[in-house]
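Troubleshooting: if your tokenizer reports a length mismatch, compare your output against this known-good record of 456 residues.
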Amino acid sequence: MAKLWGGRFSKLTDALVDDFNSSIRFDARMYAQDIQGSQAHAEMLGRQGIIPKEDAQLIVKTLGEIKADIEAGKVEFMIDAEDIHMNIETILIERIGDVGKRLHTGRSRNDQVALDIRLYLRDEIDNLVLDAEKIKQALLLVAEKNLDTIMPGYTHLQKAQPITLAHHLMAYYEMFKRDKERLLDCRKRLNSMPLGSGALAGTTYPLDRNFVAEKLGFESITVNSLDGVSDRDFVCELAFDLSALMMHLSRLAEEIILWSSHEFSFIELDDAYSTGSSIMPQKKNPDVAELARGKTGRVFGSLMGLLTVMKGLPLAYNKDMQEDKEQIFDAVDTVKMCLPVFANMLTTMTVKRDAMLKGAKGGFTNATDVADYLVKNGLPFRDAHAVVGRMVAYCIEKDTVIDALSMEEFLTFSPLFKEDIYEAISLETCVNQRKLIGGPAIETMRKVIENYKNEN
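Known-good structure output:
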């Protein structure tokens, strides 16, 4: 077929070039946003007297019919029409003839695609924000049920101090809270309307850009036409935001995988969110968590791909920028796939409270509290640290724990120990005396959870 831009060409493009050049395979998903933008543009052209009002009205009406036909499966897009923009314009012209040819007045595909990708990603960010909220709510739900579930906290994957499962999970809540905030910030920056930038230098037509921006729900219009068509910062920013979110999801996935292992046995995943082995009948595999961990690399790859595409492009538009869509679409799709299933996996898992408590009792997780006890009784911290270090070495040699030492044994290390040492270093005391904001004490975590529940 003859191209809408083919006036200066003496022959048709090669079929291989058509296939290589075409983006309809992946940008067809923007059909609704392309039609939405074209309807606003056509209405503005009519209002401004740039085209007859009756032509504008017919264009708007026919575009609406095309959208309905696409959604009803009655439209087959064409590879040789290149992209979603040219496909829809071609269909429009087929239906209303010369009137349809007026739609592209004062517009270039360069600012059209810049508009469409902003509209599309704005809608997707709204969906992603809802999905991010789901994982936050899942964490809140499980945390609230486990305010008093004591478990070991780790540094270097070595047991460090006793905390609660609520405290641990709410650390991830903070991460996903920041992720949601970043998505909303990205939405603000992409919500500037580029239509009217033309190919790169604007247009001589008296367009009303503010009308189109208001019609499409944009907060502002772009003020430099070169930047308007060549800016993909918001695409890269969204890819980073999604990468950060997946990085957090992957960290949590790693913990779920460890906790569900026989060696930890801190949790058991629901059968509906686990898989088995084709050869080993005893296996119950944490595939949801493993896939989320694996798909994180895919999203990271999209970010690096986008940055690499953009790094060497002179102003203004270059065909390289067509490569932005597959990268960001895949990143968006991947995150949207991971978040809901991961949230459901969390809310259906069984927490093994006794195993977590047993884990906290090993590894001398209350050693810091023994040192703090001595400090509170007058010993300088560095001296107290040395005393407790010797106590730990003694316990390792005797294959025991600090809690099990007799009073006589305690006194061999320091005369400052009294009978209240046993209560001072019980795991419940170790946890609940850490009442500072940010700490694991039950009353502190309850307040944090209630505050977050009231925000939502």
